[in-house]
Amino acid sequence: MVLNYIWIAFFLVAFVVGAARLLFAGDTDVFSDMMSATFSSARTAFEVSLGLTGVLSLWLGIMRIGEKGGVVNFLARILSPLFVKLFPGIPKGHPVTGSIFMNIAANMLGLDNAATPMGLKAMSQLQELNEKKDTATDAMIMFLVLNTSGLTVIPVSIMVYRAQLGAANPTDIFVPLLLATFISTLAGVIVTSLYQKINLLNKTVLATLFGLCLLVAAVVWGISRLSKEQMNVMSNLTADILLMAVIVVFIIAGMRRRVNVYDAFIEGAKDGFKTAVRIIPYLVAILVAVGVFRASGAMDMLIDGIRYVVGLCGIDTSFVEALPTALMKPLSGSGARGLMIDTMTTYGADSFVGRLACLFQGSCDTTFYILAVYFGSVGIRRMRHAVACGLMADLAGVIAAIVISYIFF
Predict the structure, then answer these.
(1) Kindly report the CA angle at 176 between 172 and 179, in degrees rounded to 5?
(2) Distance linking the first and last C-alpha atoms of the chain
(3) Are 126 and 137 within 8 A, CB to CB?
(4) SS3 breakdown of the chain: % helix, strand, coil, rounded to 5?
(5) Which alpha helices (DSSP H) does 87-130 contain, by range?
(6) By CB neighbour count within 10 A (0-12 exposed, 13-18 middle, 19+ buried), where does 232 fall?
(7) Residues 17, 297 contacting (CB under 8 angstroms)
(8) CB 3.0–4.6 Å: which of 46, 112, 164, 226 could bond 230 by disulfide?
(9) For residues 190 and 398, what is the distance between their CA atoms, to the nearest angstrom?
(10) What is the mean pLDDT of each run of 10 residues along the chain (409 residues)?
């Protein structure tokens, strides 16, 4: 229901802004731009779904081998003590916990192409436990918030863009980004737990959080001792090795259990193709709304309004120039990426604004895209508090990125 109102608001606001530009500014091209945006966004949505088809088929095929080989169940047993606290609606030892872990691990490494199929697999398993098939469960919402908070340990793509745009040290955003994305994820878990009345003050959860803090500290210490060239090589090499290791381990596990791994892969790949087709309408809906909103000029007006209000409060407005990336990220990953690149091109990759745009890009995720794809893949229409929790996690990431940028840069 919330997403329904937001979707309607995008079009109504865009129409009002477009009409105002036509009547008061004489901009006769505004409605032409808006209509062009509807067609181009619809085409983009289809192209995204088409591009996902191969990746979904590959990874859902690999996941099916992992299921039949017992790897997913093994991960589920190990993670049960923590997951029964964060996901009380999931039975202890259920295979979905393994799928959730693999999705989160892929996100932490910045492996979007692997994370999405694993996340869709987890959502499908969560739907099997759902008694009300059109309504999101607490477990689904917690899972989506963990995705939308965007916990990233190795931001490979952002560092690559910085290097391409001439940054003196493309890796200098690594530590600030790690801190910002960690705060975003922590805030998302806390907010969702408050909504769902989950008690986080227990030994298992506290020990896990303490362990994650130590892990983050260790990664920061280790990376700080590498040169920028070494860090880029290490990041890419780690991601590639881990992905290949997952494929090989799953195949070996299947062979040990005498599974016909080829047939298992084909079985899972067929599900990947069906899923890619099923999400097309949801992607078209959200991307067209975002495209029209941008083309109308409403996004630019929003930024100008924020700059004015911040200036009235006597606060430094330097960060406002990077806000388009932050505001676009929950709506469109490709749109936010384009704005990040545009900001670095305009102000310089090593400028305060350029670095802050990179932190915005990495400290939160495409909330509405994830909601559309993940919930759309299983036919969820009633999202309950998913949008609110996801956007609060994004807001925490944005605020953390601004504060941390002022401290570091």
Answers:
(1) 145
(2) 41
(3) yes
(4) 80, 0, 20
(5) 96-108, 112-128
(6) middle
(7) yes
(8) 226
(9) 16
(10) 73 91 88 90 78 75 82 73 81 80 71 70 88 88 81 67 76 79 86 87 80 76 69 64 81 90 89 76 78 84 82 81 82 70 80 89 79 84 85 88 85
